[in-house]
Write a structure and sequence with these properties.
Layout: H1 3-31, H2 34-38, H3 51-70, H4 76-102, H5 106-130, H6 132-137, H7 139-158
Helix pairs in contact: 1-3, 1-4, 4-5, 5-7
Length: 159
Amino acid sequence: MKLNNFFKLIVSILLCQAVGIGGAFFTSPAVSSSWYRALEKPALNPPSWVFSPVWITLYFLMGVALFLVWRASGERRKIKMALSVFGIQLFFNALWSVIFFGWQNLGWALADIVALGLAIVWTIFVFRKISKTAGYLLAPYLLWVGFAGYLNYALWILN
């Protein structure tokens, strides 16, 4: 692997992991707070320890997908568009933790996660035009966000 590509891979993974770390600043203290513990949880709510390894893995896959598109040769305009779309979904991803755990607003968090899901679909669509592998690497992310959307909706309804 060329040094330039190695640099792009590391930056891509670190960028995605940084979003996860940023979200953890809101999530970690809130999960043990009286507010979160008092929420009525849906039947399929996993234990809190599940979320961290799942998100670390998903952010890694997102980083690899980002790298595959960033390093691709081809039409620069199409690649820039794909990177911009990725940035949009990453913004919605980061915003969710702030809204849900920071602001403790389940309704606005639900609106954000719907926007996030749509942005992920859009990202998969534009990534697959450049690298099919990059698009496929985002499929687990979309599935998990769909499940998280169910949890957010159930928490909103139950509380």
